[in-house]
Amino acid sequence: MRSHNFARAVLRVAARNGSVSQSPIARSTSLNVLRHTSLSYPPCIATSVAAARAFSTTRIDLKKKVKKNAFAAIEDDTDALDDDAFAVEEDDLFGSVSDSTSTSATSSTSSSSSSNSQMSRVEFTSALEQFTASLSYDLLDRGHFPALRTWRRLALQASTAEDFESLLEAAKLYRERVGSLGSESALRFAAQAVKLRLPELAVVAFGDRYTYGLEYDLGALWVVQSGLARKLGRGREEVLASAQMDGAPVVEVDLLGVLAESTPVEAGEGKAEGIKRKHELDMPLARAQLSIIDRMTLLTSLSTTLAGKTPDTVLLTYLIRAYVDTFHLTTRRSATNPLLMKVLERSDGLIGLLTRVADGSKVSAEAPRGVHLAESLQRNLVSVLGYVAARGQDGFKKDGLDPVKTLYGFMDRVDREASSKLVWRVEPLLQSQGSVSL
Fold it and tell me: Domain spans of the chain?
């Protein structure tokens, strides 16, 4: 068993002998399709793809921060929280659990959560205040470092948006005075936020990870992306409320068109009114849904700051499916709706990007406990390839790449059984539009 006293002694010696250096990590560049989303973000999530700032690139020059950063690494290593305590439920894009596997995952999550005693409001507030007080310079200078596991336990006890905001304030202070909270903390924060239907708060934290020290990995991004996708299927009021939450991207280019006020005289007044009714949208709801999808775009962009330096394939499938299923883009009515022409254009571009990224690639990370990645990816690709079939497969064949064959191959590399189910569900859609030689 490690001795904390010994660890502290080592750190004190290290602090006297020199400073800790960090190797720089090259900043990632954005791809054109994601850059053309034309979003600008408020200060709380000002990190975009083009200016994404990897947390590891920032040097910590102050002696106090160097010493405490090293201690934070030891705390990460000695953390022994049970992974079952933050298992994430993974279900269908719009909220309905679609198979027994997901149902059993839900039951497992519920039982593990019930085994952990829930703090009262007074206990949570008191524990968070104690954690914040333990970050005083007086205590830190004397070598009394707070345990990072305390913040992680509090993250699993958060039950309101205010709780999460208080946790982020504590994380900000910890980041300033001690160092990074690490990817484990990011995952636990994200899992609890998604569980409470507040994935937007995780987007804020990840969008400014230099401030909060929550160093997300692909697993954490997948968890939040699935939570945002499910949010699209919630009730109208919940979707509208999402657009009002802090950190909503500001849309510079409106993807929703406008119906012309005048209609050719020869169409007749009755027919013109029928055309207008046919293409009407609930505009406040549609714009709120686009706000959620914009957050999903931001998460996809953040994946370019990781090792791959390209958008993650799984996150892209969630993003495209969000457009397709939210606006029913596979139906003839939507395909001819003048309000959705830019949405269709955006989706076409994302299909091309997905095909290039998925060509020859593999899933480069392990899914967090409770996330059924293969099943979710299969459902996403059914929508993606259904859209390709409806729009015409030949129109997406570019640079020698066929999206159908490429995505079949990607799914096969992830899970062969799920790949067989994907082919079985997609082939009838493709046959209705034309044959595909496999």
Answer: 25-53+218-258+270-438, 61-216
pLDDT tens string 215-266: 999 999 999 999 999 999 999 999 999 999 988 877 677 888 765 554 444 5
The model's pTM: 0.75
Instruction: Please state the three-class secondary structure of the chain as a single string.
Output: CCCHHHHHHHHHHHHHHCCCCCCCCCCCCCCHHHHCCCEECCHHHCCCCCCCCCHHHCCCCCHHHHHHHHHHHHHHHHCCCCHHHHCCCCCCCCCCCCCHHHHHHHHHHHHHHHHCCCCCHHHHHHHHHHHHHCCCHHHHHCCCCCCHHHHHHHHHHCCCHHHHHHHHHHHHHHHHHCCCCHHHHHHHHHHHHHHCCCHHHHHHHHHCHHHHCCCCCHHHHHHHHHHHHHHCCCCHHHHHHHHCCCCCCEECCCCCCCCCCCCCHHHCHHHHHHHHHHCCCCHHHHHHHHHHHHHHHHHHHHHHHCCCCCCCHHHHHHHHHHHHHHCCCCCHHHHCCHHHHHHHHHHHHHHHHHHHHHCCCCCCCCCCCCCCHHHHHHHHHHHHHHHHHHHCHHHHCECCECHHHHHHHHHHHHCHHHHHHHHHHHHHHHHCCCCCCC
Q: What tens digit of pLDDT does each residue of 272-309 get?
A: 444 455 567 889 999 999 999 999 999 999 999 987 78
